[in-house]
């Protein structure tokens, strides 16, 4: 596959997502802009534009493109918004969000130091100004709060930890898979003056939060 083939495959993927999902054009444009093949292991590149999750090492996976599209859309961010990601993985989802919010606005934490290091390097090489640190989402980037939005790409079993919800401003949103394997739900929390509004967006399957 050369670059032209990859671009064509990526456009086809986005056309399929457009037919299948009710998501904003801005979200689809972000998916179309990010070279997903550059985020997956060498041997998986020919499968990079299938709408499938793929292994990225250390028993972790890059989410399927439709899931990245749905979560990015639910996040409802605009250029200039500051976003907190928990679970950098290979950095793909962070790059998609960075396409929308712009340089310097995505802060991402990854528990596995090897993945954090390679994602940081990959994002830099591809021209994405995303701040990546190795650590635990419960404590990382507390100095950078408040964020306009946060999302998790790993599933906490008992709901989104308070430490993460507390780092999002009033009016901001948190998108996360929650629950145990087999019964996980995708939820969107909206932080309101009087409390937290919770919407359920269906069953999902993510790696557990550590
Ligand atoms: N968004 C990623 C998907 C990563 S899979 C991508 O586009 O590739 C989820 C990631 O969450 C894994 O890499 C896992 O190591 C990480 N993770 C699990 N528990 C975590 C925690 N407590 N803090 C930060 N990252 C965590």
From TrEMBL:
Domain of life: Archaea
Localization per Swiss-Prot or TrEMBL: Cytoplasm
Substrates-to-products reaction catalysed: [protein]-L-isoaspartate + S-adenosyl-L-methionine = [protein]-L-isoaspartate alpha-methyl ester + S-adenosyl-L-homocysteine
Annotated GO MF terms: protein-L-isoaspartate (D-aspartate) O-methyltransferase activity
Homology family: Belongs to the methyltransferase superfamily. L-isoaspartyl/D-aspartyl protein methyltransferase family.
SUPFAM superfamilies found in the cross-reference section: S-adenosyl-L-methionine-dependent methyltransferases
Key words, A-Z: Cytoplasm, Methyltransferase, S-adenosyl-L-methionine, Transferase
Cleaved signal peptide residues: none
Keyword Methyltransferase: yes
Coiled-coil stretches noted in the UniProt entry, renumbered to this chain: none
Keyword Transmembrane helix belongs to the record: no
Function, in words: Catalyzes the methyl esterification of L-isoaspartyl residues in peptides and proteins that result from spontaneous decomposition of normal L-aspartyl and L-asparaginyl residues. It plays a role in the repair and/or degradation of damaged proteins.
Primary enzyme class: transferase
The name this protein goes by in its record: Protein-L-isoaspartate O-methyltransferase
A GO biological-process term: protein repair
EC numbers: 2.1.1.77
Any GO CC annotation of this UniProt entry: cytoplasm
Predominant place of localization: cytoplasm
